[in-house]
Every structure is written in structure tokens, then in C-alpha cells.
Amino acid sequence: xxxxxxxxxxxxxxxxxxxxxxxxxxxxxxxxxxxxxxxxxxxxxxxxxxxxxxxxxxxxxxxxxxxxxxxxxxxxxxxxxxxxxxxxxxxxxxxxxxxxxxxxxxxxxxxxxxxxxxxxxxxxxxxxxxxxxxxxxxxxxxxxxxxxxxxxxxxxxxxxxxxxxxxxxxxxxxxxxxxxxxxxxxxxxxxxxxxxxxxxxxxxxxxxxxxxxxxxxxxxxxxxxxxxxxxxxxxxxxxxxxxxxxxxxxxxxxxxxxxxxxxxxxxxxxxxxxxxxxxxx
Amino acid sequence: xxxxxxxxxxxxxxxxxxxxxxxxxxxxxxxxxxxxxxxxxxxxxxxxxxxxxxxxxxxxxxxxxxxxxxxxxxxxxxxxxxxxxxxxxxxxxxxxxxxxxxxxxxxxxxxxxxxxxxxxxxxxxxxxxxxxxxxxxxxxxxxxxxxxxxxxxxxxxxxxxxxxxxxxxxxxxxxxxxxxxxxxxxxxxxxxxxxxxxxxxxxxxxxxxxxxxxxxxxxxxxxxxxxxxxxxxxxxxxxxxxxxxxxxxxxxxxxxxxxxxxxxxxxxxxxxxxxxxxxxxxxxxxxxxxxxxxxxxxxxxxxxxxxxxxxxxx
Lengths: 281, 314
Description:
Chain A is of the alpha/beta class and 281 residues long. Chain A has one domain (3-280): Thiamin diphosphate (ThDP)-binding fold, Pyr/PP domains (Rossmann fold). Helices cover 43% and strands 11% of the residues of chain A. Chain B has 314 residues and is an alpha/beta fold. Chain B folds into two domains: 6-171, Rossmann fold, CATH 3.40.50.970; 187-313, Rossmann fold (3-Layer(aba) Sandwich), CATH 3.40.50.920. Chain B has a seven-stranded mixed β-sheet with strand order 3-2-4-5-7-6-12, sandwiched between helices. In chain B, strands 9-11-10-13-14 form a five-stranded mixed β-sheet, sandwiched between helices. In chain B, helix 10 packs across helix 11. In chain B, 61% of the residues are buried. Classes of the chains: A alpha/beta (281), B alpha/beta (314). At the A-B interface, helix 5 and helix 6 of A face helix 4 and helix 6 of B.
């Protein structure tokens, strides 16, 4: 990755964070913590990797993205708005009555949303179906899905994991966002999903571990490796920081599903704007 | 009259899939390790490249079906009613119903006529569950001819459909040549003036038998086959209720939430009249031969005629 690309993607990740904070602030609810931890993934996928066309969101040959951890929609909405699927003003209407942007992704009403998700464990199954459809119809698109490390406590995830390997869905790449926290506390205290990599390996997936989910070069390496894997699906298990980029939200479980108040919003915005300014220099 | 031919509607489903596949190459079939029983095996043998076994994992199967549909591939997904409508309910609701995806869920082994497998496999709640999902079409065909036609109509329809199918071989009373299936349109099989029998699935033939018994007693029963429980053909139901003033619903399903409830929902608002619901009375089934279970639970022409006779006499 050249320096200019890296800088551009870092800026986009920062803008995604700003959009996610803006959305949850105006919604007075939502999930900022897990939104902030996947900003680099969304920046990389939507602005570097995936073949998509915002002017033709239903393009048959596009790559697909399924946010299996659907509660982190504020980040996805910010990425889609930045990409040009809809005006950024929509972010301020998130979760409002009559708004296009629902609390969890709604493929029927939001351009760019490939699958309605929110009930945990279901997105990965839909991603498997999309990948299977691609194989069946000889399409060369790829399917990406992001799961939470708490989400993978759902049994359906492992049904899907078995299915994807059984049908050799090498056009499927899952990301497990291992920020270590779920609503009730630390993953390893609530219901440990560890060891995550060993589990997927046992289910015959190709496993890639990324030590820093906020390192775009590491993400590029991982997503590129995934594309070279034949005959099996790939999972990228990324260590991330819940609440990344906003000092008082980082690694705090309380920010899983709490919106910032006006003061906190201003502080978060100031911190993220400063990061963006630093990147622009 | 010759003995009626008997075919289980699950067989009809397998046959219809094969017939559809011969003409259309744009759909696939999923099953959850029950292909031999649901009869998707007939399709599997003829079109192995278009059949995907999902193993004993119904939740994922429904999710995969949603993904296939979201990517533009039409799909039929099958298991027993208990595991499709029951176990996978929330996935059907959120991954298929909410995005209104074009998935056909064809669930076999519905009702107590599953027989010997007993209560764990006798799903008497699937119609109720599926009815509550906005935009879901719910169909319960009465015989082989209707089941094949329903499967083909579901293929043509864009949107989620639940088709309830049975394990037990049941009489074929519709005429293959003249039968036309219209989704959402009830069929008046026999006109009458004293009481209306509204039935669905394998109870339709029993209602016809009941009407014959009632006729011998001088009671004129109208028999309506409601193959599509949702959307309900309210017009036909209301018109018949207005004519007879008394309605008996009959279904091999719980009296809570099924056909009887759908009819009551309609009539209580639009034409309140005497309605009695015959079905499974808020209890579990148990093991035994299907035909004996149907008798035990009162789901026979004789019992329908008895109850209808009492209602007509009042």
C-alpha cells in the first residue's frame, strides 16, 4: 500500500467514525463502540477492495457486504454515505420515525445495504447463500461479512461455518471483530468464544489473524491473502479496540450501546477532527 | 364409484419440483437432511447440481435461502414443519419476512398425521407462527392436484411463501385436468344453506365426507376449501357466513392461531355469527398410527358431521 492510499483510507476511516458518532448522537441511541472498531474494515472494503457502484446499488455482479453484527450499522451507514449511496444528511435522521436509516440495516429501504441484519448469527448464513448463488450462477463476485466476537456465541454461526466449508465457498470472506467486549462485559467472562481461530480452523476455514484491526496495511495483506485461497472460505480474526478513536470510549463496555450526550459528542468530534486534521497535513 | 387414489402432498411436492425444474433452470432446492422424507430427493436425483443439503441445521438453511434470494436465485427450502416453521421461526421472520425475500418454504410432516414419531414431530402450530409474519403467504393444500398447483403458483409468485404439506397419503379429489389454483382464492366445493364447513389441508376431504353424511340427515352444508390461509379470502368466507349463519372450521392444527382463528378474526369484525373451531385443542399429540390419531382427535368426516349437525339443530 502506497503512502497516499494509506493516508486516504485513514482519512476515510476517521470520517466513518465521525459519521457513526454523528448518527448515534442524533439518534440518542445506538451502538458506537462496535461501530468505531470496524471503521478501517469499512474504509478498506468500500474504498479500496469491493467492486460496487453507488449509482447502481443492485448491480448484479457487485461484491456483497453483509454486516452480520448489524447493530454497528452507524459505521456502515457512514461508509455508504461517504461512498455516495445517499446524502450524508440522512445520518442525522438515524433511528428517527420515518427515516431511511433504521436501527439495524434494512435492505429494502437503504441503498447499498445488501442484507437486512441485526438478529445476531443470521448475517453469515445469508452471506453463505450469496456466495453459493455466485458459485451456482458462475459469477466472480466476492462476499464479505463482519461478525462480532460475542455474536459468534450464536450456534447458527457454526452451522454456517460448517456449510461454507462443506460447499468450498472460497468467494466468502468473514471478519471476526475481536474487540473483546460484549454487552454484559468481557467476552472471556460472559461466554468465552476463544479460541476463535482454532474453532474456524477446525471447521475447515482458512484462518488469518490480524493483530491490529486499525492497521490498514495489515488489513490489505489479509484481504489480499483471502483472495488467493482456493477451495475454502477465509476468516480474518482481527484484534480491535472497541470505541477506537474516541479516548473515553476506547475499551469501555459501557459504550457498547450508549449514545453520547451533547458534551460527549463535542469532545468525540473534536478528537476525531483533530485526528483527521493531523492526517491531512 | 372407484376407490379414490391416495397420495401424500409431500409426494406431490417432489413431483412438482421435478416438473418445474424441467421448464425453469433458475431455482435451487435446499433441504436439512430430510430429502428422503420431504421428497426433495426426487429433485435431487434428477438435478443433483441444483440441490444443496444443509445438514441438520435448519436455522442456517433458512438464512442461506435468504442469501440466495437476495443474490437473485430463486429457492425452495424444505424440512419438517416442526423444524422449518418451529425451530427456524425467528430466522424466517428476520432474514426472509422482514426483507420480503423470494423464498418458498415447503414444510412437510405437518400436523398430528405425522403419526408414530409422536408429539416432538407433530407440528400443530406452524400456521399460527407463519401467519404472524407480515407479507408471508400461507398455503395448506388439500390433495395431490392442489399441492402440485400450489408449488407451481408459489414459484411464479415473487415473495415469501410457506406451504404446509403432509406425510400421510390422502385421497385425491380434485380433477387434474380442470383444477385451477388461484392463490388467495377459496374454493366452494359444495353449496349449502344450513351451515358452512370451512376446511384446509387434509380436512377438506373430511369436510366433504361430512357434508354427504349431513345431507342424509337433511342438512345442507356448504363446504369451502381455504387452501390459502393468508391472505384469507374474506369475501368468500363472509358471503357464506351470511348465507348460512353458522360456521364450523376444521383443521389439523391447533385451534389457536390457525384457520379457525383466521376465520374468527375476519368474521368477528365483519360479520359476527356463530363459529365453532374444530382442531387440536391446545394439547400435544402422541404416538400412534396417523389414521387412528385423526379419529382420536375428532378430525374425521363423522365427527365433523356430528358437530355440524348439533350446530345446525340449534
